[in-house]
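quick one, two chains, predict together pls
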Amino acid sequence: MADYSATAREVGKGIRQRDMWLTLGSWDVRRMYRRSVLGPLWLTISAAVFVAGVGVLYGGLLRQSLESFLPHVALGFVIWTFLSGSMLAGTQALIVEGAILKEVAIGPTAVVFRVLWRQILVTLHQLAVPAVILVAIQRWPTIEALWVIPGALLLICNVAWMTAFLAIASARFRDIPPIVGSILQIAFFMTPVIWLRDGLTNHHWVVDLNPFSHLIEIVRGPLLGMPGYMLSFWVCTAMAVAGCIMTFILFARSRDRLVYWL
Amino acid sequence: MAHVVLDDVCVSFPIYGQSSQSLKKRVIGSVVGGGLSHADGMPVVVNALSDVCMELVDGDRLGLIGHNGAGKTTLLRVIAGIYPAVSGKMTIDGRVTPLIDTRLGLEMEGTGYENILLRGLYLGHDRAAIDAAIGDIADFSELGEYLELPVRTYSSGMLSRLLFAISTAFDPEILVLDEGIGAGDAAFMGRIKKRTDAFMKTASIVVMASHSDAFIQAHCNIGAVMEHGRVKSFGEVGEQIKLYQDIVRR
């Protein structure tokens, strides 16, 4: 029943519509802060406030030196926000942004790319916070930090299929957005963003079986020169392959019905 | 050459509403063996189009006639490629310009220029084509410097002029039109009519739905009377309008 070659063509069409989703994604970011004086700079400021507050408080609680703990929290928080923000936006992508699909045949792929691009732009604004911290404490990346490039690509690839999968599933089952919301809330505390894996005396599996901690580690690990991120690379590659295949099959099977669910 | 073929096309909408769009019903349904949900667990289905067959070639101007709920807009959306046919075969050759909702993608906080860009992108044009059309849109809408202001500051006349100018700025191949385009202030009616005529002439195929017999008579050469999601009759436009008026009078 599912037509896989037509689905592949549809994804290709979505990529070629980049004029549309690049413009609409950056338009979304500007629209959020229309008429505010600082504009999208608020994204940077709110990340800075969080990192400063939580970094100092938890750094003290966990008896960590600020020099090692602040970059950990800052990078972890920005990557976590990218992850969770994209997933939450994904659940709404077709329901809210996709209302347009009932008026023009632009296809759902472009809508998902629009949401992804918006989240990437938000993340780029927030990345200023860890960058400033790393410069301030004069912690220069080593040659090993180049692993951040494949790491970031792998992260985006994983976030992309998660966003697309949630977008399609949420259009059909409207309970998925609140489910994802509550899972993400608890997942934040189960993921080493505001604490360190080394601080755990037992229950290391909370980190090791947590896909989010691997996704954060492939970007944060190389930048901070923390060992042990190679395993995370393997985990995330496997997740990306399995997730992309799964999402592609879901899209192929639901493509003909999608617009009727909106 | 643009070409549209519909062969026994059916469209039905599942209505999920209260019954099965929630996971709970699915889970409970599977646990208790479907006893709590609908008899066979299927959602209520509304048949919006049944067995629609038609072929349109270059030069055809089709007017869909029928009362509210007859399936006119649904058929437009099928031809525009928005609703995939649930059964039957269809071929649409050519780029479709859908003008079903003229307020499509309108951002009240955005400036006139930004809205031109957004609308152009939604209609599937690239930035170069949109940039090329901006001069024409600015000229026709006579908005001048207002295009730099947010659309929410426009009067309703200014807004409808802008929307009309954008809608008619890009040459269509297959034009899909719901209700006439171009309402606006009286002083503008003459120019709007002229531009509408020219715009429609550039299209290879036009399909429109309207409650205005005069509009259909003026712009179409074929008519189709629709009733309960079926094409009841199809043929020369004047004849079809008469047929429909007979049905209404009965």
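Chain A touches chain B through 28 residues (CB under 8 Å).
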